[in-house]
Amino acid sequence: MSGKPKLHYVNGRGRMESIRWLLAAAGVEFEEQFIETKEDLEKLLSDGLLLFQQVPMVEIDGMKMVQTRAILSYIAAKYNLYGKDLKERALIDMYVEGTTDLMGIIMYLPFQPPEAKEKNLALITDKATTRYFPVYEKVLKDQGQDYLVGNHFTWADVHLLEAILMVEEYKSDILSKFPLLQAFKGRISNIPTIKKFLQPGSQRKPPPDEKYIAQVKQIFNI
Amino acid sequence: MSVKAKLHYFNGRGRMETIRWLLAVAGVEFEEYFFETREELIKLQQSGVLLFQQVPLVEIDGMNMVQTRAILNYIAAKHNLYGKHLKERALIDMYVEATMDLNDLVMCHPMQPPEGREKNLALIVDKATNRYFPAYEKVLKDHGQDYLVGNQFSRADVQVPETILMMEEMKPDILAKFPLLQGFKARISNNPTIKKFLQPGSQRKSEIEEKMIPQVMKIF
């Protein structure tokens, strides 16, 4: 019984990746049990471990938590990454929901037909550069501070960095018109826990490849 | 009697309905500004109040709040509907996130092409009766209490009944196999603020009418 959180998911990003980022940013060590076959998933189901028959599932503090946002909110609150009062929390929630929407589009891309690839790339680029990144650039500009909310490091900063890096994998110069976000990216990447997570050998997962996509389709009957 | 919140949305349920429920239950008076055409939405977007160019928008406590979950979290926390501590909050979050998954399916249902409606309805009913409702029935059974979390009224006791009622509109006997949920629904419906919200003339919105769907889709 290590007492460390234990993550149940496939060996890839999907909906678990933001949870890995947040735990890592908080300096919390965690274990992972990967679902590799349909049988692995069926065992979790038949053992009654998945409240709504879905993953992610994170065993943490005696709970078997499911629902990505529930898990993230719990971790953020527990490790003081959720702001100091209700209004900071409201801002963090708004910002995180924005980056969730953006990363949500990207998450589904590998499962789209190949013909849609170019159109989808245009969609991500458009949304990132006209809807989402301008907002965070403005937040940073208006406040002139290092972090998005309350002049201290929060979940919003972790989530935005994750989103920036994810979009950059599709278009490496996506931040070309956002100087403050470029500086933000550099700053947050240098936070020791995050710097460690960004190094090879960490529990951060690579972008989905053909093999991963096939595995996910097979396990989840997509 | 001052209005404490202003809601901007179209005159229908969509993503704003759960917010209306929670405000009503919290006893927060609110005004609604409905837009009926795409032009009106564009005007709102151009005014700069929509952080991500999207609605719902709720003006509350000096903030222009967007993002449904951010708004719900704020209202729940402010009005003591979010449990007494972190672990209760965790349970509440798990339960309400699931209702939102089911609500999304219900919300998108009218936009299905006619050929796909029956199959989609079957899918929604299947998820409700095999995935979501059994989980809530078991929660009630295991602790034998009146409310879902921590033996006190929380947002979970608002959002789960809201979803139940929406499901009953699709299939009136959907709770047939869930006696505890039936009791729960009846109990919660008798809560004074909820009872009031369920009466005609309240700000609760009805199911979208078939003929309104093209208009709504044009707005967005």
UniProtKB/TrEMBL annotation, chain A:
SUPFAM superfamilies to which the protein is assigned, alphabetical: GST C-terminal domain-like, Thioredoxin-like
Tell me the ranges covered by the GST C-terminal domain, including all copies. 85-208
Report the residue ranges that make up the GST N-terminal domain in this protein.
Answer: 3-83
Q: Which InterPro entries match?
A: Glutathione-S-Trfase_C-like, Glutathione-S-Trfase_C_sf, Glutathione_S-Trfase, Glutathione_S-Trfase_N, GST_alpha, GST_C, GST_superfamily, Thioredoxin-like_sf
GO molecular function list: glutathione transferase activity
Judged by the first EC level, this protein's enzyme class is: transferase
PANTHER family linked: GLUTATHIONE S-TRANSFERASE, GLUTATHIONE S-TRANSFERASE A1
What name appears for this protein in its UniProt entry? Answer: Glutathione S-transferase
Q: Which organism is it from?
A: Crocodylus porosus (Saltwater crocodile)
Gene name per UniProt: LOC109311723
